Q: What sequence folds into this?
């Protein structure tokens, strides 16, 4: 998206004036690659190794096709098979790829700041990155020392528009409200905000540098996220802090939010990216 990213409010105004949505980038579909990626995601979320028929059934793939793809992935070390049970799990080559992907990335840049946020506020802090248009993924984390905390694992995937991070994504999206609304309505919340209210909160991100979710996504949980932008003003990453809402004053939550915003700015500087608000 060339130039400065447009705010949700500006997009809303454009839609009301009858402007048409910009044509999207042409997508190229390669079925075998898409099926292989779906298998890897399925195996990553499965608590136990899976058999061919179960994988084929879950992904609606012909079993013989499923087996051919699994054998190709196994030959590359991306999946492993137990010859006794004929069940598949992720292969260790995934670790090598992940290490390369994270090297010099936001994971390295963000970790010291996440640790500092946790040390100072005793919260859970993590970094997320857009992994695909519909999701973001946890790429670094620092856990609260408290026994009661929100568990977030590296590699966890979330719908792109959910929680505080989702408001940041919407703030720097080039999609008009009519395209955002059906995606918003598919999200699962403890207490979903009104769509117009959510749009207004997303627009405020460009003024404050962060977004908050105060019990909407998870009951009793406060979440603050500050976006890091790409060279064309698109959402790339976010620094996020999560805490149990009880016991925090409004002033303390503002202080935490400002610290998250400042941390995102320092991480962006290290990545040679931007946190520009307009």
A:
């Amino acid at each position: 998206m060339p130039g400065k990213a447009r705010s949700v409010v500006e997009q809303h105004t454009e839609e009301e004036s009858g402007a048409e949505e910009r044509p999207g980038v042409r997508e190229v579909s390669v079925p075998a690659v898409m099926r292989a990626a779906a298998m890897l995601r399925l195996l990553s979320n499965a608590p136990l190794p899976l058999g061919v028929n179960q994988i084929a059934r879950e992904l609606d793939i012909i079993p013989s096709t499923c087996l051919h793809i699994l054998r190709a992935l196994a030959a590359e070390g991306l999946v492993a098979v137990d010859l006794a049970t004929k069940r598949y799990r992720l292969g260790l080559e995934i670790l090598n790829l992940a290490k390369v992907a994270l090297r010099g990335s936001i994971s390295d840049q963000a970790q010291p700041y996440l640790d500092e946020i946790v040390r100072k506020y005793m919260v859970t802090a993590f970094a997320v990155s857009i992994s695909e248009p519909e999701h973001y993924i946890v790429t670094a984390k620092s856990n609260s020392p408290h026994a009661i905390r929100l568990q977030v694992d590296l590699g966890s995937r979330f719908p792109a528009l959910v929680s505080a991070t989702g408001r940041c994504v919407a703030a720097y999206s080039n999609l008009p409200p009519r395209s955002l609304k059906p995606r918003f309505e598919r999200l699962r919340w403890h207490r979903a905000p009104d769509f117009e209210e959510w749009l207004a909160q997303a627009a405020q991100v460009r003024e404050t540098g962060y977004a908050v979710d105060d019990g909407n996504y998870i009951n009793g949980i406060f979440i603050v996220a500050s976006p890091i932008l790409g060279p064309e003003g698109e959402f790339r990453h976010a620094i996020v802090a999560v805490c149990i809402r009880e016991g925090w004053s409004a002033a303390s939550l503002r202080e935490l939010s400002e610290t998250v915003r400042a941390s995102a700015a320092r991480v962006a500087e290290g990545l040679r990216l931007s946190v520009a608000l307009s």
Observations:
- The CA atoms of residues 11 and 176 lie 5 Å apart.
- The chain is about 45% helix and 20% strand.
- The first strand starts at residue 50 and ends at 51.
